[in-house]
UniProtKB/TrEMBL annotation:
UniProtKB keywords: Glycosidase, Hydrolase
Cited PANTHER family: ALPHA-AMYLASE FAMILY MEMBER (PTHR10357), NEUTRAL AND BASIC AMINO ACID TRANSPORT PROTEIN RBAT (PTHR10357:SF179)
Record's signal peptide: none
Protein family membership: Belongs to the glycosyl hydrolase 13 family.
The name this protein goes by in its record: Trehalose-6-phosphate hydrolase
Domain Glycosyl hydrolase family 13 catalytic: 10-391
SUPFAM superfamilies for the chain: (Trans)glycosidases
Amino acid sequence: MWWKNAVFYEIYLASFADSNGDGIGDIDGVREKLPYLKEAGIDALWLTPFYPSPRVDNGYDVSDYCAVDPQYGCLENFQSLLEEAHALSIKVIIDVVFNHTSTAHPWFIESSASLESAKRDWYIWRDQPTNWESFFGGSAWKLDQRTNQYYYHSFAEEQADLNWRNPEVKQAIYDVLSFWLAIGVDGFRFDVINNLTVSDTFVDNPIGADGKQVHLYDVNQPGVMAVLKEMNQWLKTVDPDIFTVAEISSDQLSVISSYVEEAGFDTAFNFNLGSIEDLDLKLLTHEFQEMNARNYLPTLFFNSHDMSRSWNRLAREDRGTYELLSVFLLINRGVPFLFQGEEQGVGDYLPSHISEIRDIQAKNKYYEQCLFVETQQALLFANEVNRDRSRGMIPWGASQQTGWIGSSPINPEGELISSVYQELIRLRKAEGPFQVVTNIQLENGCIRYQVEHLSVVLNFSDLSVKQNISKKVQTIYGKGVLSEDRQWVQVPPKSCWIGKEEQ
Ligand code: GLC
Ligand code: CA
C-alpha cells in the first residue's frame, strides 16, 4: 500500500500560501508550492476543509460537502491541483467532517423548518436537553424557537450533529464520498469520527473528581464501530488503495487503536503521543512501546492545526531537541504527518488582543474568563487553549500577505532545520521501509531503539552519553562518535546518532 511508506504533510489551507494577495491561503497557493513540497520529499498532502462554510470553526462547519469555498478557488482549481500533484507522484487526501454540518447547510435548514420536515430526523432533536457539554464550552444543546425543540451540537452551536441512526444520513454521506472518489482523491481524514451519535439513549454524563464532565455517553457509543466498519468495508470495495485515517477525540491509545482494529480505518492519529504537553521522555517512550506492540502502523506527528507547535511546546525553542524529535518522526516505524511550516521550525503565533483571535475555542474561553478576571489575564487563559498558535500564516517572505490572521514567527535557524528534515526524509527513503522496531529503551535521558538494520540513539540530556553497541555498525547520521573498536558510541548533549548494521 502506497501510504505505508509515505511522508504526509498537513496543509491548513487558509494560512498556507496565498496566490491572489487577499491575505488568505488558497488552492492555487498550494499548487504553486508543489515543487517546494516535492523537493522537501513529501509524498502526500492532507488538505483541511476547503468546502463552502460560514467559517465559525474556520471550515469545520461545512455548508456544502461537494463544492469549494470561493475564498479558496473553485472545483476546477482543485482538479488542477490534484492533476499536478499526481504528475509529481504526490497523493492528496481530504478532510471530511461527517459528525456535524453547519447550521447553514441546506439539510439543517430543511430539518429545522418544522417538526414534520422530511429531514427532521437527520439531526438530533429533543424536547429536553441532557447535561452534555460542548467541546467548545457551554451546553451542547440549543433551543430552536421555531419548533421549540433542542438540537444537539457537540462543538459550536452553528455545528449541528448529524443523526447516524438514520440510514438516509448514511447514504447521503456515502454519496459525498463517491463524489470525491470520482474526482480522484487518494484518501480521507475523518474528523472526530468517534463522536457520531448512533444511539437514542440520552443519559446525563457524570462529573469527575476534578469537577469536569466525563464524556461517557456522548462519544464512543455502542453502535459506532458497526457503522464505521461498514463504511470502511464499502470504501475498500470501491477502491482498496484509498487511505483512511481517523481522528479520534481521545489521547488514550486503547480507544484510538480500537477504531483501527475494530472499525477498519487504516490508521488513526496517535494523540497519546502527538499532543503530549511537554517533553516527558518516560511518557513518550512508554506510548511508543505500546504503539509498537500493536500490529497496525501508527501515525507519528508532533504538530497539527489544533495544538501549540512543537518548536515551542516540546523543543522549547532549542534546535538540538527539535532535531531529535524530527529523527524520531522520520527514522521510525509509522506514518509521519508533518504540519505546514514544521520543516522550517516555525513557532507559535500569539495574538496580543481579543480582536486578533480567530479560534472559536479561544474566543469562548476569553469571554467566559472576562466574567472573573481582567482582560489581560483573560487573554492569557484564552491563549493557553488558542489553536491560532499553529494557524498563523506561513512566513514565506515578503510576498506573503497577512490578512485573515497574523503571521507565524520566522525561525532564524529555519534553513538549517529544513535541510535536516530533507536529509532525514532522504534517509528514510534510502533505508526504509521501516516495519519493525525493537529494543525501545530510555536510559540517562537517551531514547534508543532498533528500527530494521538501524540503531538510533537520541540524547535529550544535557550531558554527553556513552552507549554500548552490540552489532557491527557504521555511522550514517548524527554527531555521535563511534569508538575505534566499534563497541560503543559517545553521543554529545542534545544530539543523535544513527548506526547502520554491516551486511
Ligand atoms: C477536529 C478538527 C478541529 C475542529 C473539530 C470540530 O478536531 O481538527 O479543528 O474544530 O474537529 O470539527
Ligand atoms: Ca487568497
